[in-house]
Amino acid sequence: MIFPALVGAGLALAIGIFATVVRLDRDRAFYPTVAIVIALLYCLFAAIGGSARALVLEAVVGVGFITLAVIGFRKSLWLVAAALALHGVFDSVHGSFIANPGVPSWWPPFCLTYDVVAAGYLAWLIARRR
Asked: What is the extent of the structural domain holding 97?
């Protein structure tokens, strides 16, 4: 599914640039919040799919990403970039580990590219600001 992947990458870049232009990303909490919302979307899909089992599994995984985002917020935004990139990796293998009937077929490639491009953009911002 190339189109969802292209849309995910394009949106991540557009949102990153927009956040920089209007200075939303000057607040240290911006990208950690993005990472937390991303981590919770699979829980939303589990609720949509009506699967309590998937919801519990997605919540357990989500807590890991949320924890990394919070630690990154407090210590180093590099950890937030890592959380975003790791979530992209998770998207690529998600279906092999968790059966979540609410996940749209286009979501994994969309989210994977969104996560990786957002991580790359954040890494670029961090490196540029040093």
From this structure: 2-129
